[in-house]
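Q: I have 414 residues here and want to know how they pack in 3D. Can you give me a structure?
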Amino acid sequence: MSSQLVREARQRIERVRKQGLKVRVFRDGQPVEGARVRLTTLESQYLFGAVCYHYGLFKDKSKDERFTELFTPLMNYTMMPVHWDWYEPRRHEYNEPYVGNLVDWAHRHNIKSKMHALIWHECCPKWVQPGMDIKALYEERVNYLMQRYTGQFDFYDLINESTVSERFDNPVSRWMKEFGQVNVARFGERLVRAIEPRAKLIYGEWNVHGQEYLDFLRDLREAGVGLDYIGLQSHQHRDIWTQEETLRVMDEAAAYGWPIHFPEVSVCSGKPVGEMSYLPGAKNKFTETEEDLHWQADFTKDFYTLVFSHPATEAISWFDFVDHRWLGAPAGLINDDLQPKPVYRTLMELIHNDWRSDAELRTGTDGSAARRLFFGSYQLEVEAEGARQSRTVNLVRPSFYDGGAEDLVVRVDL
C-alpha cells in the first residue's frame, strides 16, 4: 500500500505535469459537432533516461541490437562518458570512435544526450603529473571536446561532485583547492560558451543531504555562474533515501532557482555483503533474491513518483541500464542476460501508460473537445464529414510550473 506522501505526489502530478488542450473544429465558419479528435503522444517533455555505456562493447553484435531493443522503447534520454582518465589515457590519444558511435546511436533513435563530465577531480589521467599546468590542460581538453562535438549533445555536465574534491589527492584536486571551486566552474563555463554559447550546463553532485552542498549552491548563485540545471545524484546501493528525505532534498535544492535533474539513480535488487566500496573499479558482493527483485521495482515506482511530482524536476535517469556493470551491483533495469527485470516493466508501465495521455474524443455541439494532457508533443488528427486534418501540437511546460495555466486552444478548419 502506498504511503500518504506517494498518494499526495500522484495528486500533485495531475497539477504540475498536465495542461488542458481544447480543440475547436469548424467547417465553413460553423462549429462541427461529432468530429473525431485523436491525440497521440509523440514525445514526453520530461526526460526519462539511463546510461548507455555498454552499447558497442558487447562482443556479440546481436547483444547490441538487444540492448537497443530494450532501451529505446523505454527511454528518451541518455548519458555518455568522457571521463578524462578513461577518454584520454595517454596524452592526445582519445577513446574514439566509442563516444562518437554512442552519439550516432542516440541520434538515430531520437534520444537526447548528455556529455559526462567536462571537469571532475576524480578522473585524473596517470600522465598528468605534479607541476603540470592543470588549468592549461583543462582548457585544451574542454576545447577539444566542444569543438569535436559542437551541437551534438543536448546537455553537458560542466562540473561534477565539487563538494568532495578534497577527499582526493591528485594534481586535479590540488589545483581545484588552490583555484577555488567557484572559479573552476566559472572557468569551465567560459570555455564552453566560447564555442557553444547556448550549451545547457549542469552541476552534478551526490553529496546533497547537508549544508555543505547548499552553501556551494549559494556561492555559485552569488558568483553568477551560468548553470542551467543542477543534478541530484542518488546512488542508493546501501543508504536508501526515505520519502521524507527525498522531498526535503528537492525542496532545499530548488530554492536556489535552478531546475533539477536526477542524473544517476541507482537502486539495487540485492543487499551488499560487508562494507560497500565506491572506489573506482570496486567489485562488491551482493545477496540477490526474488524478493529483492520485487522490492527494487516497488521502491523505484514510489521514488520516481515523488521525483516526477516535484515542480522543479525535469529529468530522471537510471545508472546503470545493465546489471553488475558498476561496483558489481545488481542495479540494472535488465539482467546480465539482457532480460527485463520487474523494475524495467514497472517503469514501462509508469512512463508509457500512467504518465502518457493519448486520447480519442468527439466534439460537442459547440465544435470543441477538451482533455488535460501531460506536457509534450502530440499528433493531432481531426476527421469529420469526409474531411481530415493532421498536425503536431506542443504542450510546453515552463520550469517550476505549479499548475493554473489556461487551456491551450487549437482551431482546426476542415
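Q: Anything worth noting?
A: The longest helix spans residues 290-309. The two ends are 49 Å apart (CA to CA).
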